[in-house]
Every structure is written in structure tokens, then in C-alpha cells.
Design goal:
single chain, mainly beta, Thrombin, subunit H, 4-stranded antiparallel sheet, 15 strands
Length: 206
């Protein structure tokens, strides 16, 4: 996964490339990209006002600055971004959240670029491809977190759907703290409710 940025004013515009390509904009008015395609209508609209062909035309102003390589699986879910998130150390951070098909989630500092994440958590054993019933290998070799998580800033919660063994149909909708990745207590069981997903498959990026 790679990160691109622009030096125009105080703006960061982040573009992830690989199995997906999205734009993430840091501006005074933005709180971040908190759900797939930026809003509940899934329009994909990012109301960009500062970038234009002129100020992104040279490598000195816009270009690749970093690649994260310490990711344990494929990325089908859209990465999410939170601007100015209060962190336990008292610093407000701009944070990128990345989920993988190995049922892992990573939180990276968008400004202090490092291979070491702010935190990473694994939420179970992903389903091997040959046990999933998937005959097309569009998800291979593991099936874990496929759909894009959702962030609720009011409760500082990241909601994630995981796909785990021992039963290949098990999917869990789980709630986790944005600042630590630990399970929160928003559901009766303490962290999740389950359903059998044979007819409720989630999709990459959705």
C-alpha cells in the first residue's frame, strides 16, 4: 500500500494504490473518511477545493512519499481516515485505518510515516479459501475482513465485520476503540453479535 501527498498549503491529499484507489482529504472542515465512498449515500463524492492540475503537476508538489509493506494480507476494504483524533498521549493525530483479509486492522499515523503502526490487532483466524465455498478465487488465499469498516466519531468506535473459522459461515460485527483497537462494550455480549452469512456476503470496498 502506498501513500501520495501534496504540499499545497496545509492540505494533505492521500491516494492509496494497489487493489484500490481512493482519495482522502485533510482540510479544516473535514473530519475524515469514515465510511465506504465517503458517505452513507455511497456517492464517492470528495468536495476538493484546493487541488487542481496546476498545483499537482510536478513531483515536488505531488508524489509518492511512502509505502507500507508490513501488512499481513490482501486489502479489499477501503482504508479510512480520521483527522485530529485525540490520542492517549495527549496528541491529536491524523490516523489511517487499514483492514486485511487476515482479519487484522492497522492504525497508521498519516503524518509521521513509519512501518510501525500506532496499533495493530488481529480479530480471529481467517477462513482458508478452500473452505469458503468460493470457486472463483476472487478472494485468495484467505477470507477475513472484506467489507469496509465504519467509524463513529461520537463514540470513537470502529465497526468491523470479520469472517472467521471454525465455521466458514461465521461473520461477526464487532466494535473496537479507535485509539487502541480493543473491544468495546456496545453489544450485549460485550463485543459482537453474529449471524450466518451464507446469504449475506459482504463485498470488497463496500
Amino acid at each position: 500500500m502506498s501513500i501520495y501527498c501534496t504540499t499545497v498549503g496545509s492540505l494533505w491529499s492521500l491516494l492509496f494504490v494497489g487493489v484500490l484507489s481512493i482519495g482522502l482529504v485533510k482540510s479544516r472542515a473535514a473530519s475524515g473518511v469514515l465510511t465506504q465512498n465517503n458517505n452513507n449515500a455511497r456517492t464517492g463524492a470528495y468536495f476538493e477545493t484546493l487541488l487542481n492540475p496546476g498545483n499537482v503537476s510536478s513531483p515536488q508538489k505531488f508524489g509518492k512519499v511512502f509505502s507500507w509493506t508490513a501488512i499481513d494480507g490482501q486489502i479489499y476494504a477501503q482504508p479510512l481516515y480520521v483527522r485530529g483524533l485525540p490520542w492517549p498521549d495527549g496528541v491529536n493525530r491524523n490516523v489511517i485505518y487499514v483492514a486485511t483479509e487476515k482479519d487484522s486492522v492497522y492504525a497508521f499515523d498519516a503524518d509521521h510515516l513509519s512501518q510501525t503502526p500506532l496499533w495493530t490487532m488481529n480479530y480471529g483466524n481467517p477462513v482458508p479459501w478452500n473452505l469458503s465455498g468460493n470457486t472463483h478465487r476472487n478472494l485468495y488465499p484467505w477470507i477475513g475482513i472484506t467489507s469496509t469498516p465504519v467509524i463513529d466519531l461520537s463514540s470513537s468506535t470502529l465497526y468491523v465485520v470479520t469472517h472467521t473459522v471454525p465455521r466458514s459461515g461465521d461473520r461477526r460485527l464487532c466494535a473496537y476503540a479507535l485509539q487502541s483497537g480493543v473491544r468495546t462494550t456496545y453489544f450485549e455480549s460485550g463485543f459482537h453479535f453474529c449471524w450466518f452469512g451464507e446469504e449475506l456476503y459482504d463485498r470488497g470496498g463496500n
